Amino acid sequence: MVTIIDKHTALVLIDLQNGILQMPMADTIAGVLTNVAKLVAAFRVAGLPIIFVNVDPSGPFIRIRKDANPPVLPRNDDWLNITSDIDTRPGDIYITKPSWNAFYNTKIDEELTQRNITGIVLAGVSTSIGVEGTARSAAERGYNITFASDAMTDMVAESQERSLKYIFPRLGQVDLTEKIIEVLEKTQLYL
């Protein structure tokens, strides 16, 4: 349950890219994207940073166990692009990660530090992989974390449920998009 959002908070959206969104998900992606769009709009009104993270596992930094059998997806020219269903703008921050964790081998921590960001709201795909990997690393770095539970999904429903029920409450606050926006708006009124 979200009770407070740090006044220096960024919205961090994980892997909402065309290539990932073609995978089968536990929840309908349309519902997730609707809630992500609400968060984006609220953060724009508040004048707070929005970070779009995509993954390029073909980069030089990724190492996958030989027996891991990751899904092989057909790649095309727009595989890495953030879905056009989300309002992206040139002033937003764009990070490409080589693995599950948006902090691993990227400049996201520098981008956040440069802007004096101390809190993040996390959403995206996949709950138990990209979102959780990023959240664990953010917690290690001392960021205050809020999870938008209805603005994320996973390929495996049980994995999502375990992240939301057992892992995320130990790392931060978990709530619905509408409640997060309500608390964000109240925070902005008192600046």
Task: Walk me through this protein's architecture.
Helix 2 runs parallel beside helix 6 and helix 4 runs parallel beside helix 5 (157-171). Helix content is 37%, strand content 19%. The chain contains six helices and six strands, in the order βααββαβαβαβα. Strand 5, helix 5 and strand 6 (173-175) form a beta-alpha-beta unit. The chain has one domain (9-60, 77-189): Isochorismatase-like (Rossmann fold, 3-Layer(aba) Sandwich). The model has no long low-confidence stretch (mean pLDDT 91). It is of the alpha/beta class and 191 residues long. The chain is globular and about 45 Å long. It has a six-stranded parallel sheet, sandwiched between helices.
Record keyword descriptors for this entry.
37% helix, 6 helices, six-stranded parallel beta sheet, 191 residues, alpha/beta, Rossmann fold
CA radius of gyration is: 16 Å
Biggest sheet strand order reads 3-2-1-4-5-6
CATH third-level topology: Rossmann fold
Largest sheet: 6 strands, parallel
How many separate domains?
Answer: 1
Structural class: alpha/beta
So, the CATH homologous superfamily? Answer: Isochorismatase-like
